[in-house]
Amino acid sequence: MATAITDPEALAALGELPPEDLEALLALYFEDAGLQLRTAIGAFDSGEAAGVATAAHRIKGASLSIGAALVATLAAGLEVDARAGDLSRAAATLAELDAALALTDRTMRPQQTGADAQPSEPVGGVPAGGGEWGLRAPHAPGV
């Protein structure tokens, strides 16, 4: 089953905020999510599963609170794998997270990104490397 980009119920709750507060909240979310993604990539590059898990947990929590369903789902999977010490899929998942953050940004803030994606459009999988966050693709430690 495809995961929706956003959670309509969470978006409805956010819609009750004054527009300027919503804009500030989304700006803070995307800034922090980008920082946490860069932290996760750095931890992955160093082979630090605990660091990947911590950053993924932070992305998941923030994403759930604002209704970024696809990002939360990807981050949750990354967190589970990293907590188990398994980074075998982490490079691909980090690339997917990068792409999902870009897609979510275009969906939740179309006026700032010039896109017109639908808020709850289902996505079967985000293509790796499709992000627009300017992040380099992670690589296996020692490669």
Offer a few descriptive terms.
two-stranded antiparallel ribbon, 63% helix, 6 helices, Four Helix Bundle (Hemerythrin (Met), subunit A), 143 residues, mainly alpha
Structural notes for this entry:
The chain is elongated. The protein has six helices and two strands, in the order βααααααβ. The protein has 143 residues and is mainly α. α2 packs antiparallel against α5 and α4 runs antiparallel to α5 (90-108). The chain is 63% helix and 3% strand. It has a single domain, classed as Up-down Bundle (Four Helix Bundle (Hemerythrin (Met), subunit A)), CATH 1.20.120.160. The longest helix has 27 residues, at 19-45. It has a two-stranded antiparallel ribbon with strand order 1-2.
CATH superfamily: HPT domain
CATH class: Mainly Alpha
Flag low-confidence runs.
Answer: 114-130
Shape label: elongated
Q: Which class of secondary structure composition applies to the elements?
A: mainly alpha
N-to-C terminal Cα separation, in Å? 34 Å
CATH fold-type name:
Four Helix Bundle (Hemerythrin (Met), subunit A)
Total separate domains = 1
Give me the side-by-side strand order of the main sheet. 1-2
- In the CATH hierarchy, the architecture is Up-down Bundle
Tally the helices: 6
What is the total tally of β strands?
2
Largest sheet composition: 2 strands, antiparallel
Our Rg estimate from Cα atoms comes to 15 Å
Summarize the amount of helix as a percent range: 55-70%
Q: Determine the mean pLDDT.
A: 84
Strand portion, in percent?
under 5%
